[in-house]
């Protein structure tokens, strides 16, 4: 464990050298434990079959390369930051006036077109998104990462750099897949309202249905691979300035179905970020959004990392010694509430689920609310 000053200095140095790195805090470690992989050479590593070990960064489009920072070619860092003094609630930023009218018209027209297709029976749900640029005014990316960490203690907060992808930051509330031996966890997250100081929400039919689509699709797609699968009731979960409807899904995989690549290909992209049925919704997105999502709504995270588990010895062992076993874990997240850092601007990516009951103006407002997650650290 190194000091947090050393940790952030090392990230800055790595960025200056333009070498790949990732630093992140997992949602399960609200105490401020941050990790990083700093690649020690300038090679480009890509995922071939998901048997690799390291940190993966994958785009929305399945046919584009997925990049890897391999554990074996990296320096691994860990530190702790003090989150205790930080105001845990979303801080309102004075959001600058940005040209919004054209963006609003475009997004409303896109959503209207999506609803038309749903009414024609082409698909039942589609997730439509847009980009928004914010001037950076010389703000330092590592500082912004530190602020994201403090503002969103229950998200997967990350900064990723690779010469092939550029510099990305995010604070995502959504797990794609967590695997430890044959145990897995995932979630269905959809439906959004703005947090107004109250966790009690009466969810409308539209939100309940769009979230149910996600739950049903994940349960159905995982069925051939699982020995046992369970789901929670949908509940309200906070993510920064927003509330979502969430169902936790977990269980055990058949020992023979632990081919991670195969599992990912059946669940990703879920209807939380693409649509239902998957293919026509994906085609509509690719043909109509009019921009490249790149890594937004792709996935990222720890892939096949070795973890030491300490257990006390069994009763027959008279000395009752502790022994350790090494297991492999993967912890992948959907890349949401994210932004790409360019020289003078940050490009934000935001979207929302559209069903037959969607109101295009309300969907526009939802994307504005989602953009606030990132604007809170960009505009100050
Ligand atoms: C698509 C996004 O978020 C997803 C869509 C949601 C919705 O439609 O309500 C909620 C959570 C996420 O699954 C995004 O943040 O850009």
TrEMBL record:
<feature type="domain" description="Chorismate-utilising enzyme C-terminal">
    <location>
        <begin position="105"/>
        <end position="370"/>
    </location>
</feature>
<dbReference type="Pfam" id="PF00425">
    <property type="entry name" value="Chorismate_bind"/>
</dbReference>
<dbReference type="InterPro" id="IPR005801">
    <property type="entry name" value="ADC_synthase"/>
</dbReference>
<dbReference type="InterPro" id="IPR015890">
    <property type="entry name" value="Chorismate_C"/>
</dbReference>
<protein>
    <submittedName>
        <fullName>Isochorismate synthase</fullName>
    </submittedName>
</protein>
């Amino acid at each position: 464990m190194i000091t947090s000053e050393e940790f952030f200095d090392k990230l800055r140095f790595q960025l200056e050298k333009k070498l790949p790195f990732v630093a992140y805090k997992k949602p399960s470690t609200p105490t401020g434990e941050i990790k990083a992989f700093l690649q020690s050479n300038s090679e480009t590593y890509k995922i071939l079959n998901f048997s690799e070990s390291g940190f993966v960064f994958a785009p929305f489009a399945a046919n584009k390369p997925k990049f890897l920072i391999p554990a074996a070619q990296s320096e691994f860092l860990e530190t702790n930051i003090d989150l205790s003094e930080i105001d845990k609630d979303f801080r309102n930023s004075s959001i600058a006036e940005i040209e919004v009218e054209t963006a609003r018209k475009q997004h409303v027209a896109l959503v209207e077109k999506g609803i038309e297709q749903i009414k024609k029976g082409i698909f039942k749900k589609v997730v439509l998104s847009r980009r928004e640029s914010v001037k950076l005014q010389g703000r330092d990316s590592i500082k912004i990462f530190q602020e994201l960490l403090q503002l969103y203690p229950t998200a997967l907060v990350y900064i990723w750099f690779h010469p092939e992808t550029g510099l990305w930051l995010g604070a995502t509330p959504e797990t794609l897949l967590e695997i430890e031996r044959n145990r897995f966890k995932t979630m269905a997250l959809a439906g959004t309202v703005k947090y107004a100081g109250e966790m009690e929400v009466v969810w409308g039919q539209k939100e309940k249905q769009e979230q149910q689509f996600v739950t049903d699709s994940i349960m159905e797609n995982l069925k051939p691979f699982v020995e046992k699968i369970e789901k929670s009731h949908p509940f309200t979960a906070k993510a920064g300035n927003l509330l979502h409807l969430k169902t936790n899904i977990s269980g055990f995989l058949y020992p023979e179905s632990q081919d991670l690549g195969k599992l990912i290909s059946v669940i990703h992209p879920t209807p939380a970020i693409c649509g239902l049925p998957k293919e026509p919704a994906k085609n509509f997105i690719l043909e109509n959004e009019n921009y490249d999502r790149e890594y937004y709504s792709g996935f990222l995270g720890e892939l096949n990392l070795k973890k030491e588990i300490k257990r006390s010895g069994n009763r027959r062992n008279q000395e009752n010694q502790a022994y350790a076993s090494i297991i492999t874990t993967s912890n992948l997240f959907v890349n949401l509430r994210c932004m790409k850092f360019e020289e003078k601007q940050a490009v934000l990516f935001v979207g929302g689920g559209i069903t037959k009951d969607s109101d295009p103006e309300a969907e526009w407002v939802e994307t504005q609310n989602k953009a606030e997650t990132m604007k809170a650290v960009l505009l100050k």
